[in-house]
């Protein structure tokens, strides 16, 4: 199984076109909304959803069947939680799109 994790970084339509058919797709926080906007319904949305407005979260809730919501007071980033979940599924391939997000401080945590 191939898993694609889509985070809240810069995501282009061309990048999304590279997602292989029959892959399991996880939208991380605002990444779930980005997928929906591009007519891709993720299999799962995960995060604390602090990057979306209440009305945007309602859109995610209406479109995504499997949502795992965490409290914003946590020791791990939303992306870390998505990767941990993905690895439990033992994927053949795991691709992360938009991992750098819009701020460097949370991204730098993933480098070490």
Automatic annotation (TrEMBL):
GO MF annotation: an example: ATP binding
Signal sequence segment: none
Keywords, alphabetical: ATP-binding, Kinase, Nucleotide-binding, Transferase
Keyword Transferase attached: yes
Pfam families noted in UniProt: TPK_catalytic
CDD domains: TPK
Keyword ATP-binding: yes
EC number: 2.7.6.2
Limits of the Thiamin pyrophosphokinase catalytic domain: 18-106
One Gene Ontology biological process: thiamine diphosphate biosynthetic process
NCBIfam families per UniProt: thi_PPkinase
Name by which UniProt lists this protein: Protein containing Thiamin pyrophosphokinase, catalytic region domain
């Amino acid at each position: 199984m191939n898993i694609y994790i889509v985070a809240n970084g810069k995501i282009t339509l061309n990048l999304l076109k590279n997602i292989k058919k029959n892959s399991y797709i996880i939208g991380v926080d605002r990444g779930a909304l980005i997928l929906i906007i591009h007519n891709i319904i993720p299999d799962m949305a995960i995060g604390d959803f602090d990057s979306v407005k209440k009305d945007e979260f309602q859109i995610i809730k209406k479109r995504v069947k499997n949502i795992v919501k965490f409290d914003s007071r946590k020791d791990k980033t939303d992306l870390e939680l998505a990767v941990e979940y993905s690895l439990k599924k033992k994927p053949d391939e795991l691709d992360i799109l938009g991992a750098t997000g819009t701020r460097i401080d949370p991204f730098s945590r993933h480098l070490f």
